[in-house]
Amino acid sequence: MAFGVLVGVGSGALISIRLGQQKRDEAEQILGNAFTLILIIAVIVSGACLFFLDPLLKSFGASAEVLPYAREFIRIILWGSIFQYLSFGLSNIIRAEGNPRTAMIALLINAALNIILGSIFVYFLGYGIKGTAVATVISQAVSAAWVLAHFRSKNSVLRLRFKHLGLKWNLLKGILAIGMAPFSIQMAASVVNIFFNQ
After folding, report:
1. How far apart are CA 50 and CA 22, in angstroms?
2. Share above pLDDT 90 across residues of the chain, in percent, rounded to a whole number
3. In this structure, what DSSP letter does residue 65 have?
4. For residue 174, is it left (φ>0), alpha (ψ between -120 and 50) or beta?
5. Distance from CA of residue 134 to its chain's centroid?
6. Which of 9, 26, 51, 166 has the highest Cβ tally under 10 A?
7. pLDDT tens-digit profile of 13-35?
């Protein structure tokens, strides 16, 4: 969530400014850079977490009894984390372009579908902890699909265009500079949770 906030809030603020300046093409360049940055961060962070999974879980407070369940759950979540990054990060951009209702629907889809699928997978199919993780990933994937479909719909102010996916340092610098404060707050909250778990 912290990395989603980093990109989403940073790019959302810049996009709002560019749209206010009537610079739609620049706003679409920021959207393309945000999309690419989300993909890169997802691969790096999730890959690193998968590689150091057991030490991370132990440092987060997982006991020997809980560790096998935590490992099973988090491994599935990490493999599907790209959907959470896209849904959470790009929802901020949807709000920034003036469509808060669409962004809210994306979050509601994620939450409602997660509850429904989690109940089905755990209570009716007996998949246990694995079922809750799969339900979460599917819910995030549907939410991400909703968000990406928005940027190809007539309701979107911006379009996600292939030509804007190449990273530009001046845009990345602005995204990271603005997004760093909310990123730090979210990371601090995560560290507090780790201490509580310990």
Report:
1. 43
2. 31
3. T
4. alpha
5. 16
6. 9
7. 899 989 888 888 888 899 999 99
